[in-house]
# Entry
Amino acid sequence: MVAATRYPKRGIRGVGSALARASRWNQVDDYLLNCDQDICALEQIETITATQNVKAIASVEGVGGVFFGPADLSASMGLSGKPSGTLTSDWQLAQHYMSIGASFVAVGIDRTLMVKAARELLGAFKDGGVAQKPTDSAY
# Structure
C-alpha cells in the first residue's frame, strides 16, 4: 500500500503526475522530486480483522497513521500510538469525535464541496441573469 503512494524508485505508483490532484494538474514545480515530503499514507481500519492487526499495520514504514471508518468503528478505540481519525459531514458528530480523542476528523468531502460550489456558480449565472460575486466565496 505504501509503495503504491510513492513514485519510482521509492515506490510503484504510476508516473502520471500531470493528472494528479496533488500536483495541481502539473502546476507544482518539481512535484515528482519533492512530493514524498507531502504524502501521508493513512491506512483505513474498517473491519475487526484490521483492528486485530492495527499495531502491525501502523508499524509499516511509510504509514503516517490510521483512519477508523465511521460506519464501522469508533475513532475512540485508540489502538495505536499513531494519529487516528474519522470522517463525517455532521458538524456535531465531528465535535463529538474530537472531544473523545480523535486526532483528526475529516469534515468536508472534496467532491461534495466542489459540487456545491459549482451549483452556486451555475445558479448565479443561470437563465442569463446578472451574477453578483458572493462575498463569502473563494471564486
Notes: Helices lie at 31-34, 48-52, 54-58, 91-99, 110-125. Strands lie at 41-45, 63-68, 84-87, 104-106. The chain has a mean pLDDT of 82. Residues 110-125 form the longest helix (16 residues).
